[in-house]
Here is the input.
Amino acid sequence: MSQQLINHSKDLKRLRDEGYSIEINGGHLFAHHIPYVNSNREIKYGILISTLNISGSSTIKPETHVIMFSGEYPCNKNGSSIEQIRHANNGTLLGNSVRASFSFSNKPPEGYANYYEKIKRYAEIVSAPAKSIDATVTEKPYLPVVDDEEGAVFHYIDTNSSRANIDSINQKFSNQKIGIIGMGGTGAYILDLIAKTRVQEIHIYDGDVFLNHNAFRSPGAPSIQELENSISKVDYYYRIYSNMRKAIFAHNYYVTEENFENLQNLNFVFICIDNNRARRTLINYCMTKSITIIDVGLGVNVVDDALIGQVRVTSANHQKNDHLDKYLPSGVETENDYVTNIQIAELNMLNAAQAVLKWKKLSGFYQDLEQEFHSVYSINNSFLNNEEKCDV
Here is the structure.
């Protein structure tokens, strides 16, 4: 509930977005990590506490200019008390077992218009002596904030979206259940990007073990001890990205015709596999179930002692899929240079970024003027070719 109130209140949201460590508890606003100087001229950290004036699901103008403080009495840098704001000694026990030691009074002519102005002003007064002693101390620590809202997919608040005021646009992903089939380099980078969105669920599929060569084509930096443990790819990535978000489901098996039905509740599938026959049967299944897909691929070869190649992204949905036979790889796989294990992390990363960009366009996050369903980037001439525009 506290984060919902913060999200719906411009003043509280601004405090959070600017790095203040705020909390709502028991009808009070707590601003933690406020630096101050005590009578021994030591830098300490206290808590500013204000009553909250709320109408519905958001704050309104503070009813009082008085604020409470938990900590020793703040002093000037010479150790003398800041008497200009002294109001009363307190001792009230508030939420989270925080005891308000003192109350302060610093009233503007018109009072405080909102809680941003109130907290900011008192924080400036209290922390100024500490900053004059040590310029590195701050009342804006940008600490991670636990997301306590019901249905939240992240373990902590996405302040990146909040600071950019694109929360409403990000909601376009909130009902999506995403599948990533194949957790080699490109699939892993796709997970890295999708995990930072508000999709409802992420399902990752791969029956292989995370080996040394995967470390050189994937995000992150596994230790040698992790590689020696022979952990499955999906469990390795689950362990990493579940630190950040909920609803990641690791499926330690290859997707085949025998288990296609496990995909039927997904909205969107990224296909990151090398087997052409498996790719085609999988896409056919997704089309029958109206599951939108993005298929990715790399083709790299050695020419004149240098690498050339292409990065491909092919999309399809129930409205636009008549182009698949024309563009998807077919036949028996050849041992091109990528399959034979040249480590090309940046191409995997680029392929993943292009795929996720297309997914976000299809989801309405980015404007899409081209509406292409097939895109190929050529490495040696930096040419991007878009084809198969959707006229639906």
Notes: The longest helix spans residues 115-133. The CA atoms of residues 271 and 295 lie 5 Å apart. The chain has two domains: 1-133, 159-389. The chain has a mean pLDDT of 91.
